[in-house]
Amino acid sequence: MNAADEIARRLEGIHARVIAAARRANRAPDEILLLGVSKRKSADQVVKAVRAGLRDVGENYVQEAVAKHAEVMDALRRTGDDPPRWHFIGRLQRNKVRTLVTRFDVVQSLDRESLGDELQRRAAAAERTLEVLVQVDLSDEPQKGGVAPDALADLLAASTRWSALRVVGLMAIPAAASGPEATRPAFARLRALRDAHRDAPGGDALSELSMGMSSDFEVAIEEGATIIRVGTALFGPRESLADATPQRSDAR
Fold first, then answer.
1. Which pLDDT does position 240 carry in this prediction?
2. Which stretches of the chain are DSSP H helices?
3. Which residues partner with 210 through β-bridges?
4. What's the pLDDT at 101?
5. What is the distance between the terminal CA atoms of the chain, rounded to a whole angstrom?
6. Residue 174 is part of which domain span?
7. What are phi and psi for residue 80, nearest 5 degrees?
8. pLDDT at 99 over 80
9. Residue 35 burial (CB count, 10 A)
10. What angle do CA 218, 223, 227 make, to 5 degrees?
11. How much of the chain exceeds pLDDT 90, in percent?
12. Residue 60, domain member (yes or no)
């Protein structure tokens, strides 16, 4: 089986698992967006996944993302294939925002007011509206980023002045766990936080829950995930790209 067929086979298998998990939770499968996380994967692999039907691509590292974005978009343009939506899901420094706003459609890692101010400034200058998700730190792991749950209301309130940003949901990366079921309480807590803040200032558009990865996305779906972030199950084990630029503190 060649590489393109293998990615297509994996994508089909993931979709089947999404459908099964949604049915267990009495949900419609089309409520759940599959985000293919291409961290440390080549542009060629992303192109193959998009041609197999992947509609949304997520990247963690700014420098890698920018170079890969250009390669993927150029390859798809040459063959007339529709481009994916691009999500940035890594920890983001303010000095990298300008690089992202003209290339990415969604930022899932908003976790502080100063970052929101910079995203607003750059998006407005580029005459773009970005969808953003607020990343919440549910496990007290500062190295992962995320706003503390008790500070979420203040950050949402600050978002009311960002006319070029649309805050559409919450994202979380639970602590490493022994198995999928061990992450269920974190997913349930993120859903509860979203529901509790929908009537708060800045919370009126909260609908998305980005949670669940290759090892636990079925549990996340059962707990209400609307976006699942799947890398290894789609692209295989991660390997360092031969030409990847070493990342600094913007990487996780």
1. 52
2. 3-24, 43-52, 62-79, 97-101, 113-125, 152-158, 184-197, 217-222, 232-235
3. 171, 227
4. 94
5. 33
6. 3-234
7. 75, 20
8. yes
9. 25
10. 65
11. 86
12. yes
